Amino acid sequence: AAGVPTALVSASPRAVVRRIAESLDGHVFDAVYGAEDTPRTKPAPDPYLAAAATLGAEPARCVAVEDTPTGVASAEAAGCAVLAVPSVRPIAPAPGRTVVADLTAADVELLRSLVAGAA
Predict the structure, then answer these.
(1) Does residue 86 have a cis peptide bond before it, meaning omega lies within 30 degrees of 0?
(2) Is 55 helix (H, G, I), strand (E, B) or coil?
(3) How far is CA 99 from CA 2, 32, 34, 52, 73, in A?
(4) What is residue 14's three-state secondary structure?
(5) Does position 41 have pLDDT exceeding 90, yes or no?
(6) Shortest CA distance to 62 belongs to which of 118, 100, 1?
(7) Residue with more model confidence, 28 or 118
C-alpha cells in the first residue's frame, strides 16, 4: 500500500516458497526466490543480491526481515539492513541490524529509517 517493492527470499524449496507466497491474503511479492533460484542459498548473499537486482535496488537500500541467524548472515553479506524477528534461536542486535520481538513494530516508517543513511 505504501508503494514499497517487496521480495520473498527463502532457503526453502521453490515449490514451498511459491505456495506460501500465493497463500498470502492480498499481498503480491514483486519477486520470489527459493533455494534453487540462485547458485548458492542462505547463508550466502546470492538470494538477497538477486532479489535486490530484480527490484532495481541497491542492497544497501533494502531491508531484510529475517527470523534466523542463517538468514541474517545472508542479508548482511549482501549488504542489506536487517530487521530481525527471532523465532527459535536468539539474534543479537549489531550494527546494521535491528531486533524486535514481533512484527507489530515493523511499520513502513521503521523500515525506511533503517535505510535512511544508505547512499
Answers:
(1) no
(2) helix
(3) 22, 24, 24, 22, 14
(4) helix
(5) yes
(6) 118
(7) 28
Q: What SS3 class is residue 78?
A: helix
Asked if 65 contacts 83 with a C-beta cutoff of 8 angstroms, the reply is yes
Q: Average the pLDDT over each of 57-71, 79-93, 104-118 and give the range with the smallest value.
A: 104-118
Between the alpha carbon of residue 108 and those of residues 3, 15, 48, the distances in Å are 10, 29, 20
Alpha helix ranges (H) inside 9-116: 14-23, 46-55, 69-78, 108-114
Could you give the maximum distance between any two Cα atoms of the chain, in Å?
36
Encode pLDDT of 68-105 as tens digits.
999 999 999 999 999 999 998 999 999 989 999 999 98
pLDDT at 25 over 90: no
Nearest to 33 by CA among 58, 59, 15, 60: 15
- Decide if pLDDT at 119 tops 90: no
CATH classification number, 7-114, choose in 3.40.50.300, 3.40.50.1000, 3.30.70.940, 3.40.630.30? 3.40.50.1000
Domain-by-domain residue ranges, the chain? 7-114
